[in-house]
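Dear U.,

For the methods section draft, I wanted the exact inputs and outputs in one place so we can describe them consistently. I've listed the two proteins in the order they'll appear in the manuscript figures. Please don't edit the token lines directly; just add comments below if something needs changing.

First protein:
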Amino acid sequence: MDKQTLPRARRPGGFTLIEVMIAIAIVGILAAIALPAYKESIARSKRSDVQTVLLEDAQYMQRYYAANNVYNGTTPAPALPYTNSPRNATGSAVNYTITIAPAPDTTATTFKLIATATNSMAADRCGNFTYTDQQIREVSGSGQTAATCWR
């Protein structure tokens, strides 16, 4: 018999256990790196949204003052156009609840808006956001500064 007619030894198809374990290890390492970065990216976008809503509500308060000469009027009382972030969200989709701070933070000539973190943002590192008539931006997170969280 010549070499061409001899049956060839075939390598069985598929992957070896070592190859599968290496692939699982690589996926695990990538997930360990990518997942925290992804979660922080989502949190940053939610923080950006609440900042936009706070600025829109602050514009409303300025218009209210121009019409009524006070920020804390009673007839009519100021009613924020957006009290949730994201806008018009309900239930567990609400990330922040926005309110006008009571006296002494809100007076006839000053106001303070507070965005309280809820649901998925309740444990966020930046915590609650505030914005005043003097354009002062603050956060009440665990050691975070306004410059870090307000971007």
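Second protein (the one for the lower panel):
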Amino acid sequence: MTALVLQARIDSSRLPGKSLLPIGGKPLILRVMEAFAFFQGEPLPWTEKILACPEDSVSSFAPLAEEAGFSLVPGPKDDVLARYCLAIRRSGAERIIRATGDNPFVFIDAAVSINREALALNADYAGYLGLPYGAGVESVASEALLRAEREALGRGEREHVCPYLYGHPELFRLHRPEAPAEWQGPELRVTVDTAEDYEQAQILYGALLSLPRLERNRGRNIIAAVRRIAGKDL
């Protein structure tokens, strides 16, 4: 079984309360969760969706998670690796697709594709290189994350979840290919981490509303919209 695990927290030093800031009339975190509900193409690979949040965020996130069809798994605020492992134990998932709560424009087609490649190669860790910042997810074997939880000691290895894996290629089977050309855009930014990001996200969300709902989180459409907004339509 594969579970989508989305990490999010309320507090942010660069953009306080960003998870609850509105985009198109709904909180940002709800827009992120909604993105993982729609895709036209292959069946979605996850059979369970989990929002892994700090314990102090439960009261704010619980009604939004229920609305979006996500289970809520609270855990340590700064040890996000431990939070993911709690989600693994609660769900019994053999594989995790890791996503973050500040990326409402995640490429769902790329998420489906990288997970398919990970399964074909039996990779412990898989993630595309060259995507716009904030567009990608990681596909990770649960056993690899559980091993990282036992062995990783560095703060960055636990706060950012996967560095222990790709920092130890001698221990894990890694798959980190360049993304296909239609999803390439490493110079682009579609995350929400600052006030400027938030302003751009509202513009981008509005630009994508003209598309059918099933097309709004397709990579090529987001890249085209970002470049059009920036006046860099190619």
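Candidate sentences for the figure legend, describing the second protein: The CA atoms of residues 38 and 214 lie 5 Å apart. The chain has a mean pLDDT of 94.

Thanks,
Y.
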